[in-house]
Amino acid sequence: MDELTFGWEEWIALPDLGLPAIRAKVDTGARTSALHAHDIETFGSTAKPKVRFNVHPIPGREDIAITCSAPIRDRREVTSSNGESEQRYVIETTLAVAGQSWPIEVTLTNRAGMASRMLLGRQALADHITISATERRLQPELSYDFYHDARVRRVAPKRALRIAVLSREDNYSTRRLVEVGEARGHTVEVIDTTRCYMAINAMAPEVHYDGKRLPRYDAVIPRIGASITPYGTAVIRQFETIGTYCVNGSAGITASRDKLHAHQVLASKRIGMPTTAFAASPKDTSNLMALVGTAPLIVKLLESTQGKGVVLAETKKAAESVIDAFRGLKANFLVQDFVKEAAGEDIRCLVIAGKVVASMKRTGAEGDFRSNLHRGGSAKVVRISKAERDTAVRAARAFGLGMAGVDLLRSDSGPKVLEVNSSPGFEGIEAATGKDIVGKLYDEIEARVKPQPVRRRKAG
């Protein structure tokens, strides 16, 4: 390597941590370098522990934070220049200066009051470096501009993420989320939504679990069961308040779960769906049916899932009987036009980040108008039209869902949205299409958790 001369302060980069520009004080009195970090938390297995932490690279700009993670190499007692001792995590990372780079050890400490974000100790000062203690910034100037434009995302390295899956079920979808995430080097923790509880306050909102505050996650993947929608969405709302990226937000899950609300959202966005009507009063039964059209009709409970609580009434008399029965149970329901030409088939489009990543045609079991795979239906890969693709994307966007299963019917007047599912299963569509759907979800999560540029402050 070429000889370098360092002054008592230098611009450096730590590319492995996504820190393209940082000012470091050179401290030959210290053996190991120190990075001033906060929110320092360990995660991962005891065999391969990692540490996640935030760095404010620009002094005085607490609004600019870069989240970093790295394997833990050691835990060491370090005595600072003022005589205070503390246990610090030690990581190894790459130091880059003047087009050269080499590995260094760094300890992590929260010393927010320090003007320099980093101290460079003796171990980091390789043999080809000499020190001129009376001079400052002898190496090429870097700029904090990185943190204010798109370059901060481009230079962000792939890092190990800490991800929570909110699920109460040990099923194919949950297992796949864990397996695929961990195969990518992430730590994926499955959390029973009903065992979460919340500290709700303005200064430090928190989510607790089994007696402990939950750590900061890079992302949350909700797999909220229909039976716990209100509580599950309250937990997601808490993560949103903290600032955690949630694949699906609480508002979108709430709206999509309520059939009436969901159809109102679709109608407001002029998205095609079967003609639908709803009424609370028993006196309105005949008028309600007239709004939808002639029999056969679909009568559907508002909270129905997986085809349960969905009845095909083939005659007007049958429809009246079903409606009377539902009313007798004080159940909320809606009435829908039956799209005959769909012939018991629908199309499930899986939308991730505004793109249809897979689609399958589902056919109902013999004699069943419902095509749900849970009810014995079958599935095969299908090529969808541009109109169907656009409809699925618009439907997911209408609810603000990062991931959604959009069910469409093929009607004579174009695609009709039957349902938007905020917790779509992966087993059927991965088996039918042979695609790694969960991998595509992680592609999006990894892209979304990269740092965002922060606007410059206007001069005084």
Automatic annotation (TrEMBL):
It comes from Sulfitobacter sediminis. The keyword 4Fe-4S does not apply. This is 30S ribosomal protein S6--L-glutamate ligase. InterPro entries: Asp_endopeptidase (IPR008503), ATP-grasp (IPR011761), ATP-grasp_RimK-type (IPR013651), ATP_grasp_subdomain_1 (IPR013815), Peptidase_aspartic_dom_sf (IPR021109), Rimk_N (IPR041107), Rp_bS6_RimK/Lys_biosynth_LsyX (IPR004666). Keywords: ATP-binding, Ligase, Magnesium, Manganese, Metal-binding, Nucleotide-binding, Protein biosynthesis, Ribonucleoprotein, Ribosomal protein. Residues 263-446 form the ATP-grasp domain. Pfam families: RimK, Rimk_N, Zn_protease. It is an enzyme of class 6 (ligase). Its EC number is 6.3.2.-. One of its GO terms (cellular component) is ribosome. PANTHER family: RIBOSOMAL PROTEIN BS6--L-GLUTAMATE LIGASE (PTHR21621:SF7), RIBOSOMAL PROTEIN S6 MODIFICATION PROTEIN (PTHR21621). Its cofactor is Mn(2+); Mg(2+). GO terms for molecular function: ligase activity.
